[in-house]
Amino acid sequence: MCLGIPGQIVKITDETRLMALADVSGVRREVSVACVATPDLSDLVGEWVLIHVGFAMSLIDEDEAAKTLEALRGLGEAQETLEAMADGAAALEGSQ
Amino acid sequence: MRYVEEFRDPIAARGVLAAIGKVVDQIGATAENPVHIMEICGGHTHAIFRYGLDRLTPPGIEFIHGPGCPVCVLPMSRIDECVDIAERPEVIFTTFGDAMRVPGTRKSLMQAKADGADIRMVYSPLDALEIARRNPDREVVFFGLGFETTTPSTALSIQQAAREELKNFSVFCNHITVPPPIKALLDDPHMVLDGFVGPGHVSMVIGTHPYDFIAQLYGKPIVVAGFEPLDLLQSVLMVLEQIRDGRAEVENQYARIVPEHGNPVSLAAIADVYEPRPSFEWRGLGEIDASGLRIRPAYAAYDAEEKFGVGYGAGPRIVSEPEGCACGQVMTGRIKPTGCPQYGTGCTPEMPLGALMVSSEGACAAYYQYGATEDAVTEAVQ
Ligand code: SF4
């Protein structure tokens, strides 16, 4: 929850609500890009971001993303975050 | 040097460790007379134990584990209030999974769920918003907790709910801020603190200036750090160099992520939705002035405390801690986790008694998980 996880923006899903699809270690999830929004949102596609509880909080470069992910794996936090994302998806269906 | 091999760059780590050893000698710090460095962030606590940094660094450095794990500092009364809200039949209570096992006086959220309350673990407040959209006949409450890293997410979610005029979404706000507890610890005459390693991701939101008082008013160094092991070692070195040189400054080791002035969009959302509470209770530390946030009256429709009449303002508050628990003493660095009589017996990660055992960012759980041995850790700080 406290540490962000790197993800790559795949596409913009909702211009008005500032939402985008991100790829986080192979898992796709919708995130808010409000905190990193650019005048033309499509500029974000392909960018790496640090994602905290579903919000892209900072733009990072690819090398930083790789290093951060490795550090998160070392702490077991990467797995925990991916499980939390799966929990979130199940919660929408009410199937926990 | 058992753990150095695990580093991404072991050679660089050896270099920094050698430099740390040199500065510790220059300061004249020893095991009997160590420098006390507090890592504020729970993520850092976890990394220190995971990589054995406390054992790799010279005995002249004593790490004090700070209050920077939001799950660990949640008071029992707030968990009780969560359970009260969650047990209402109309409510779908949504929370980060980390909070499920925190003990309350009656039960944890996990137990409440087992007893039939509709409690759902979500990854993001955005999930809670979506559940509200899909269940217009239910009241969806999100358990908002965390420091400045997660505060923008609930602020932006509340703003979004307001734009959509969602009537069935609210936040039970337990957001807390990093600087006030640091001030409280610095004001505590029993605390011995020589410098700080500052939180990286919190600072990404708030920038580095909120820590100016630590250097300017209290004359202590603070270095904002990333959470890779090498980041941490470098930051410890920077703190030590300041101590050696008699400097007290706010330095930023994590400048690649942390802008000096923080993230403007996040700060604007926080300021729009939240205001400081007069005080807020921290498990083990008690009430701390202006350390928590509440939802501004303009957004009262999204405030679960208002909606359900629970929490601050709803009556006198009882501060309770679990029987026999030494969380407060651990949290203020007075004893090590192993000094608590419940450690490993009455309190384990499977059956936590105190909140420091609940999350891997809590000092007790980190000790337990990475097998800190009795002999290395029983000495009290004072
Ligand atoms: S061992 Fe358990 S009860 Fe004791 S201080 Fe740690 S968390 Fe609290």
Number of contiguous helices of chain B: 16
The percent range for helix content of chain A is 25-40%
Strand content of chain A: 25-35%
CATH topology-level fold name of chain A: SH3 type barrels
Oligomeric assembly: heterodimer
Please list the strands of the largest sheet of chain B in the order they lie side by side: 2-1-7-8-9
**Radius of gyration of chain B, Cα only, in angstroms?**
21 Å
Please characterize this protein's 3D structure:
- The complex is a heterodimer of chains A (96) and B (382).
- Chain A has 96 residues and is an alpha+beta fold.
- In chain A, 31% of the residues lie in helices and 34% in strands.
- Chain A has two helices and five strands.
- A five-stranded antiparallel sheet of chain A has the order 3-2-1-4-5.
- In chain A, a hairpin with a 4-residue loop joins strand 1 (5-14) and strand 2 (19-24).
- The longest helix of chain A is centred in the C-terminal third of the chain and has 17 residues, at 77-93.
- Chain B has 382 residues and is an alpha/beta fold.
- Chain B is 37% helix and 16% strand.
- Chain B contains 16 helices and 13 strands.
- Chain B has helices at residues 10-27, 42-50, 53-56, 76-86, 109-114, 125-134, 151-164, 179-187, 200-206, 212-216, 229-245, 264-273, 304-308, 327-331, 363-369, 374-377, and strands at 35-41, 61-68, 91-95, 119-121, 139-146, 169-175, 195-198, 222-224, 250-252, 274-276, 279-282, 286-289, 293-295.
- In chain B, strands 2-1-7-8-9 form a five-stranded parallel sheet. In chain B, strands 4-3-5-6 form a four-stranded parallel sheet, with helices on both faces.
- In chain B, helix 7 links the parallel strand 5 (139-146) and strand 6 (169-175).
- Chain B is globular.
- The two termini of chain B are 28 Å apart.
- The complex binds iron/sulfur cluster (SF4).
- Iron/sulfur cluster (SF4) is lined by residues 325-327, 330, 337, 340, 342-343, 347, 353-354, 356-357, 364 of chain B.
- Residues 325-327, 330, 337, 340, 342-343, 347, 353-354, 356-357, 364 of chain B line the site of iron/sulfur cluster.
- Chain A: One of its GO terms (molecular function) is iron ion binding.
- Chain A: One of its GO terms (biological process) is protein maturation.
- Chain A: Belongs to the HupF/HypC family.
- Chain A: This is Hydrogenase maturation factor HypC.
- Chain A: Involved in the maturation of [NiFe] hydrogenases. Involved in the biosynthesis of the Fe(CN)(2)CO cofactor.
